[in-house]
Amino acid sequence: MKYLLMEEYEEMKVYALDNVIYHKIERKVIMAVGGNEKIGKKLMDKFMFKTVKELSCNSMFNIMDCFEILA
C-alpha cells in the first residue's frame, strides 16, 4: 500500500503518480471496462491531467483502495 499526503491527493495530477499507484489505478480502470486493455489505457490517457481527487470522485470505479491518504 502506498501513501499520499492530503495535499498530494488534492493537487497531484495523475501523470505525476509513482508507478505503483498508477498501475493499480490503471488495473482498476481496465477491469471497469470489462478487461479491455486498449479502452482502459485510452481512458487513463484522458485522465492524465486530472488531479487524484478529481479522479477519485467518479462513480465508475473506486480508486481509494489503491493508496492511503495521510493527513
Write up this protein.
There is one protein chain. This protein is mostly helical and 71 residues long. It has one domain. Helices cover 51% and strands 11% of the residues. The two termini are 16 Å apart. The mean pLDDT is 93.
Describe what is shown at a glance.
With 71 residues, the chain is mainly alpha-helical. It is built from four helices and two strands. The protein has helices at residues 6-11, 19-32, 37-47, 52-56; strands spanning 2-5, 67-70.
The averaged pLDDT comes out at: 93
The arrangement of helices and strands along the chain is EHHHHE
Q: In total, how many beta strands?
A: 2
Distance between the termini: 16 Å
Number of domains: 1
Q: Work out the helix count.
A: 4
Question: What is the topology?
Answer:
Elements: E1 2-5, H1 6-11, H2 19-32, H3 37-47, H4 52-56, E2 67-70
Parallel strand pairs: 1-2
Helix pairs in contact: 2-3
Main attributes of the structure:
4 helices
